[in-house]
Specification:
- The chain has about 290 residues and is an alpha/beta fold.
- It has 2 domains: about 200 residues, 3-Layer(aba) Sandwich (Rossmann fold), CATH 3.40.50.300; about 70 residues, no CATH class.
- It is built from 8 helices and 14 strands.
- It has a 6-stranded mixed β-sheet with strand order 5-6-7-3-8-9, with helices on both faces. Strands 13-10-12-11-14 form a 5-stranded antiparallel β-sheet.
- The longest helix is centred in the middle third of the chain and has 18 residues.
- The chain is elongated.
- The two termini are about 40 Å apart.
- GO terms for molecular function: ATP binding; ATP hydrolysis activity.
């Protein structure tokens, strides 16, 4: 199996409202995948479909080679509000996890609780946001799933709690070799832990690929104003702006940018994400002008 998740024309509607429409993507197994996009792009809906909490209206969805089903031991899910039961202690959460999951890894759960400094006798309702997130991650990870889905798990955490949570996530990925998909608005955090990125805008995958390849293949070009037909063939224009005398382009190209009339700068991951979101009104254009 080379894919953790495959979606083809996946659609979810609630009456007249469409939460996800015609989404097609292939998420590789064995990676830590960042899922990023604006509010309303369909990220949460996609993750809830993947873990079987929602049924698609149309299209095909395959998770770990199977149709998604709620409660599958192969899939772990931490929802956006990192849900825990406020009236239960940390230890009671672990006992509940053991009761509900045949594959429960008790040593892993107890080791993680100790590592992150949680008091087993403390009720979850008295924990900080970061502590609740760590508890929710522990319960999901101790199922030993093949795929772990995280919906904005660090959105409400302070910078130190985010760093601690992400470090724990990386340790779990290395130790257990699971596939992880994490949605987030915090691109800098994704760049720290993810090796694969998906940008989802208006239910459409704008770009997907290994982070290193995306960083190497995208450039910001600044130069004299030119018409599209005068640009190099093979460049995929992601976003563009022009004045009367100057063109500024974000392009994707596998070849080096060797035209001396352009000032070429590399982009960080946030620059790339913002370019695809800004250029979302239309598809990226592959230029076919003369070199």
């Amino acid at each position: 199996m080379t894919s953790a998740l495959i979606a083809e024309n996946l659609t979810k509607r609630y009456g007249r409202r469409t939460a996800l429409s015609g989404c097609t993507l292939d998420i590789p197994a064995g990676h830590v995948v960042g899922l990023v996009g604006p509010n309303g792009a369909g990220k949460s809906t996609l993750l809830q479909l993947a873990c079987g909490l929602l049924e698609p209206t149309a299209g095909r969805l395959e998770v770990l080679g199977e149709r998604p089903s709620s409660g599958s031991p192969r899939v772990g899910f931490v929802a956006q509000d990192t849900p825990v039961y406020g009236g239960l202690t940390v230890a009671e959460h672990l006992r509940m996890g053991a009761h509900l999951n045949p594959s429960w890894d008790r040593p892993l759960a107890e080791r993680r609780i100790a590592q992150v400094g949680l008091d087993p006798t403390q009720k979850a309702g008295k924990l900080s946001g970061g502590q609740r997130a760590q508890l929710a991650l522990t319960v999901a990870a101790a199922k030993r799933p093949d795929l772990l889905l995280l919906d904005e798990p660090v959105a409400a955490l302070d910078p130190l709690a985010r760093r601690t949570f992400l470090q724990s996530l990386m340790e779990l990925a290395v130790e257990q070799g699971m596939s992880i998909v994490m949605s987030s608005h915090l691109v800098a955090d994704l760049e720290r832990v993810c090796d694969h990125l998906i940008v989802l805008v208006a239910s459409r995958v704008r770009v997907a690929g290994d982070v290193e390849e995306l960083l190497a293949g995208h450039h910001r070009l600044v130069g004299p104003r030119r018409d599209p037909g005068e640009l190099n063939a093979g460049w995929t224009v992601v976003d563009e702006s022009r004045t009367d005398v100057q063109s500024t382009l974000v392009v994707r190209s596998t070849a080096p940018i060797d035209d001396p009339s352009w000032q070429a700068d590399r982009l960080d991951l946030e620059d790339i994400v913002l370019a695809y979101m800004s250029g979302a009104a239309g598809p990226a254009r592959v230029l076919e002008g003369q070199r």
